[in-house]
Design brief:
The chain has 15 helices and nine strands. The chain is elongated, with a radius of gyration of 24 Å. Helix 2 runs antiparallel to helix 8 and helix 9 crosses helix 11. Helices cover 44% and strands 11% of the residues. It is an alpha+beta fold and 353 residues long. Strands 1, 5, 6, 7 and 8 form a five-stranded mixed sheet that branches. It has a two-stranded antiparallel sheet with strand order 2-9. It comes from Lentiprolixibacter aurantiacus.
């Protein structure tokens, strides 16, 4: 029995009843693929259901304002995906009369759609014989065929794409592509793969050669930048605070956050107080009180943020202040959302500070 036939048989028996598998609607397939990038299915599923409820069609998503989209996306991270999602919905609605392109080449022209996503939409929605290669597929192919090329190298990317095309089942491409990704996610897992019950174990190179734990090979290691941020929860006598929208490029673009002071290491209270006056303007600060008892470390793919939140009471009204009670209405990074939930909603910490 061929590699592809075994994958199809396994998928038929083990596939999860996920909502985007009950349809070939390209809008829903596209939405699921964008939401699940860098995201586990268990985490992404509630977001998919939430987006479908708020935006049943691509026209509904196109008509939404960006802040609404970002607020619904809150907690998923990689917010450029949300902005690209919104931009592409508008392109489809305005330039394509609500219809998604039905081929890989034209799908690739849309913002936020790369080779993998274009292949997934083309094959799952339109039955095009396009191979998909995501992290799960890299792992299955590398182990089964014993490929030791780095999956993040140009040579490796090209080789795996060609290999995936060579072994795919063109007649059942929709189920085959979904089956191969599902097999990597549930069976041929990064850690503790289920090799003993694997339908491919008699011919798996990695299993025969003892290379299951070393394949696939990754080349470049991401350099992590350490940053030290001191967020300022400025509060005036009217219980208003400063909340600012991040402008320009970079992480959390167009999301809201408190003003902050960044340092090259942990900063003492006395040194921070000198910086606060510069950050918030001409206000007399009574005192600074650190709100979190323990240091917060927020890990992103390329950055580790060492974070403290500080209470900054000021002596007069903030002209640009907003009510503290309205903070939950704004789209924010999960770091800020957690702070608001813990210290402004479910805790008396601020009142006791």
């Amino acid at each position: 029995m061929s590699f592809s036939r075994k994958i199809l048989d396994w998928y038929e028996e083990h596939k999860r009843p996920l909502p985007w598998r009950q349809t070939s609607d390209p809008y829903k397939i596209w939405l699921s693929e964008i939401l699940l990038q860098q995201t586990r299915v268990a985490q992404g599923l509630p977001y998919y259901e939430k987006f479908i409820t708020h935006f049943p069609t691509v026209y509904d998503l196109a008509r939404a304002d960006e802040e609404t989209v970002l607020k619904l996306w809150q907690g998923l991270g990689y917010y450029s995906r949300a902005r690209n999602l919104h931009a592409t919905a508008r392109t489809i609605a305005e330039d394509y009369e609500g219809r998604f392109p039905d081929n890989h080449r034209d799908l690739m022209r849309l913002k936020g759609i790369g080779d993998y996503t274009a292949s997934a939409i083309a094959s799952i929605s339109f039955g095009r014989p396009e191979p998909v290669v995501d992290g799960n597929v890299y792992r299955v192919l590398a182990r089964y065929f014993g490929v030791e090329l780095a999956i993040d190298s140009p040579k490796g990317v090209k080789y795996f794409k060609e290999l995936a095309r060579e072994v795919m089942d063109m007649e059942h491409i929709r189920d085959y592509n979904q089956g191969l990704m599902e097999f990597g996610a549930l069976h041929c897992k990064p850690k503790n793969p289920e090799c003993e019950t694997c339908p491919l174990n008699n011919s798996c190179h990695a299993l025969q050669k003892g290379q299951v734990s070393t394949l696939p090979v990754k080349g470049n290691k991401t350099r992590v930048r350490e940053r030290f941020l001191n967020y300022l929860f400025v509060r005036d006598p009217l219980n208003r605070t400063l909340f600012r929208k991040r402008e320009g490029r970079g992480i959390w673009q167009n999301l809201y956050e408190f003003p902050f002071v960044e340092a090259d290491r942990e900063i003492e209270k006395a040194a921070l107080q000198k910086e606060v006056a510069i950050s918030i303007g001409d206000f007399r600060v009574k005192d600074l009180v650190r709100i979190n008892n323990n240091k917060i470390i927020h890990k992103l793919s390329h950055q580790h943020l060492h974070v403290n939140f500080w209470m900054v009471p000021v002596d007069r009204e903030l002209p640009e202040g907003i009510p503290v009670g309205s903070l939950k209405e704004y789209p924010v990074p999960v770091l800020i959302a957690d702070f608001i939930e813990k210290y402004l909603v479910n805790s008396n910490a601020l009142e006791n500070a």
